[in-house]
Amino acid sequence: MARTRAFDTDDVVQAAREVFWTLGYDAASMPDLERATGLGRSSLYNAFGSKRGLFDVAVQSYLDEVVRPRLADVAAASCGADGLRGYFESIAEAIADGGAERQRGCLLLTASTGRSGQDGEVRAAVEAYREEVTSAFAAALQRDQDPERSDGAAPQDGAATGPEARVADRARLLFALLTAGMTLARINTREAVATLRQAAGFTGPLALR
Q1: Closest C-alpha to 189, from 117, 108, 92
Q2: Closest Cα to residue 121, out of 133, 107, 108, 134?
Q3: Computed from CA positions of residues 115, 119, 125, 126, in that sequence, does the dihedral angle turn out positive or negative?
Q4: 31, CA 20 to 30 Å: which among 46, 52, 84, 183?
Q5: Three-state DSSP class for 78?
Q6: What residues contact residue 99 under an 8 Å CB cut-off, 6+ apart?
Q7: Contact, 47 vs 5, CB < 8 A?
Q8: Which pTM does this prediction carry?
Q9: What is the pLDDT, as a whole number, of residue 102?
Q10: pLDDT confidence of residue 141
Q11: Are the C-beta atoms of residues 150 and 164 closer than 8 Å to each other?
C-alpha cells in the first residue's frame, strides 16, 4: 500500500522557491532545502525526483504566482501606458518597501548566474521568461499606438522602421531596464528603484513617435 504524503506540496514548493530565489540554483544546497522545507532529502527526492526537479517546479511557481499576475494587470489596464507604469512602479515600491524582490531581484536571473547559466534548460527557461515579458510589454505598447503617426519613412541609419519596429524596440528597452533594476535590487536598492522608475517614464505613446 502506497504511503500518503504527510506534507503540503504547495508549501514545500514555496519554501524551496525562497531558497532558490535568494541563493540561486548552484549555491542552494540540499541541506538548505531540507531546512527550508522541513523535509529530509529522501522525501524531497521521492516527491520531486531531484534538486533539479524541485527547482523546475519552483520556477513554475514563481512564474504563476509572481510574474504572471503582474503581467495580467498590465493586460487588464484601460490603456497600455497605465498598465506598464503600474507594473514598474509596483516592483519599485516592493523593492523600496522590503517586498519579495528586495535584495533578491528576479529568481530566473539569479538562477542563471554561476555554472547553471551554462545549462541549456536553465537558459531556455530564462529565454522563455524574456519572450513572455517582452511580448506582454509590446502588446501593451501596441494598444496605445496611433497608426496615423507613422509616416513610413526609412531612417538614415537603415534600421527597421514603422510602428511595429518601434514597439518592438521599446519593449526590448523596457525589458533591459527591468533586468537592470532587478539585478541592482541585490546590491543597491536605491539605484534599483531609480532604474525601475526611470523605465516607467518610457511607457507612454509619445516615446514611440
Answers
A1: 92
A2: 108
A3: positive
A4: 183
A5: coil
A6: 93
A7: yes
A8: 0.83
A9: 67
A10: 93
A11: no
